[in-house]
Design brief:
Layout: H1 12-23, H2 37-102, H3 108-114, H4 118-189, H5 193-206, H6 225-236, H7 254-264, H8 273-277, E1 281-283, E2 293-296, E3 302-308, E4 311-314, E5 323-326, E6 334-337
Antiparallel strand pairs: 1-6, 2-3, 2-6, 3-4, 4-5
Length: about 350
């Protein structure tokens, strides 16, 4: 495979910041007089990184809430079916009890003494004994069903409470993302035209190694057909916007792009970049092959797909579009072969 080129150390966040300024539709704001353009760029980088971390937290909480919603629905259905069974069992027992009450329920010895046909009476008594035995079994079953139903109701209540906590986490992460992005937008709006031009030059220098045409599919090397299909899908998404929480096909966040690309190849990936880092076998960066997942940062809060020629395809973050970038664009690189 081609060697992994190491471009000048400009983060992918800075590289997308100029694009983000335009895409956000910045509103004029007052610049911090004590800040420098370099400090502003560093702050924007940090805010976008924190927003992406919150986005992955949102994805994780939202995925958990979806799972809990399905589990709660199943639990509630089970409780409803259990209640129906209990109602039927109670109805059957009630009918037998009513018949016994209407028969008078006199002492069996007296009934035998008074009977005009003792043999017939004994036959009926034997049947009644069996009915009573079945009633006892049915009553025991009813009690067990009632106990199980109570347990199911308790579990359903616990799941509902957990779902509400998960929904609260979703809302918390959503507010965090929106707050970080709003602050980044304000800072980008504070740049002068000259400072914005500097931003553009920094962006171009960070992407200088990406002016080449991407490697044709035939040169992707000896990868599996599914890995190749995932790369083809990711390539087809180039130019589509980053939207946090999105999984395609018209917009993506970083892990959402991986989920969608691999889904086109018939493979189901976990929703978050942290989980995707553990979705397969780790290999050294020097042995990366097209289709491998490449996660970044110590918390694996960003992910792309290796496309060959020392490049990844990824959705950077709000304001940027799906694109190629150098595989070494960030720190703490982990390569996972699915």
């Amino acid at each position: 495979m081609a060697s992994h080129r190491r471009p000048a150390r400009v983060t992918v966040l800075t590289a997308a910041a100029a694009t983000a300024a335009t895409a956000f539709g910045a509103v004029p704001a007052s610049a911090d007089p004590s800040g420098t353009p370099e400090a502003t760029r560093a702050t924007v980088d940090r805010l976008f990184e924190e927003a992406e971390q919150a986005t992955e937290g949102y994805n994780k909480a939202d995925e958990k809430a979806d799972t809990l919603r399905r589990t709660v629905s199943q639990a509630q259905g089970s409780v409803a079916r259990g209640q129906e069974r209990i109602n039927r069992m109670r109805g059957a027992l009630g009918s037998v009890a009513g018949a016994q009450y209407r028969s008078g329920g006199i002492d069996p010895a007296l009934a035998l003494l008074l009977s005009a046909d003792p043999d017939s009476y004994l036959d009926r008594a034997s049947v009644l004994d069996r009915v009573a035995a079945r009633q006892g079994v049915a009553l025991s079953r009813l009690q067990r069903e009632q106990q199980r139903l109570n347990q199911e109701r308790t579990e359903a209540g616990r799941l509902l409470a957990e779902l509400e906590r998960s929904r609260t986490q979703v809302a918390l992460h959503k507010r965090t993302v929106e707050r970080k992005l709003a602050e980044a937008r304000r800072l980008l709006a504070s740049l002068t035209e000259e400072e914005r031009a500097d931003f553009d030059r920094a962006s171009r220098s960070g992407r200088a190694a990406l002016d080449e045409e991407p490697p044709p599919l035939a040169d992707l090397g000896p990868v599996s057909s599914r890995a190749a299909a995932a790369v083809i899908a990711a390539r087809s998404a180039i130019g589509r916007p980053y939207v946090w929480g999105a999984t395609g096909p018209s917009a993506f966040d970083c892990s959402g792009l991986m989920v969608w690309s691999y889904r086109q190849a018939g493979i189901s990936l976990p929703r978050t970049s942290q989980a995707q880092r553990s979705a397969g076998r780790h290999v050294p960066l020097s042995q990366a092959q097209p289709g491998d997942l490449v996660t970044y940062r110590s918390d694996a809060s960003h992910v792309g797909i290796y496309a060959g020629n020392g490049q990844v395809i990824h959705a950077p973050y709000p304001g940027a579009r799906v694109r190629y970038d150098p595989v070494g664009m960030m720190s703490h690189v982990t390569v996972t072969r699915v």
